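FORM 7B: Structural annotation worksheet

SECTION A. Query
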Amino acid sequence: MCGAIVLVAGLVSGCALPYPGSPSEQVDAERATAGIYGQAREQFTAMADELHTVIMAIEPTEWRVDQGQYGARPSGCQLGVSAETGYSFSAVRALELPGRDPAQVAAAASEGFAELGVAAEVVERGSGDAREVTVIGESDAARTVVVVRPADGRILVSSETGCLPGSSSEILTTMFGEELYPDDVWRRIPATEGPSSVPQFFFPADGPLSYEEDGTPTQPQPLVTQAPTPAP
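SECTION B. Predicted structure
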């Protein structure tokens, strides 16, 4: 399967995704960008795999990409106490499970973290409609937080990486062909994440649409778009 490298607007196999171009045929500056792209893809994929493991442990179904936070967009950040800037990734998934016991959700999330070798902390706050049960797990890949709101049955799961050295604009150029986040990119990114999932980290302008103009997920979700393959 990995011989035919494809990208999906959802997620599909465990194959590594290709760098869109041939670094061996490019100038030194472009090779540096390829290195940054590879590092960024590795960091994003580690975060996405952790997030996926946790949400599937809670409920193996289709989750929404909440707040447009698919997670592959690099954001600028500050490296420690220095003035040097870097980049990070964050992702959010949501699901409604009305009537589900929040203790069961917390236990399932903790099992997902345990599968990753991550010790989880469960915290309960508030009462009545304001009650929240939170499960927090931190690894080298990301800090992942599960928030369960019993009042409406909503489950929100978010992951965030640490800050890495590098230029977010260079990564964006490689991913989207533009230095800035494209205005229409929300239509290219996956709108949902289901059981058969691997991260997508390349978003060509002519790729399949994942959202309609009104912001609702395209149904059915487009499955495959061919990615450029590196030259021999």
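SECTION C. Observations
The CA atoms of residues 27 and 33 lie 10 Å apart. The two ends are 19 Å apart (CA to CA).

SECTION D. Sign-off
Analyst initials: ____
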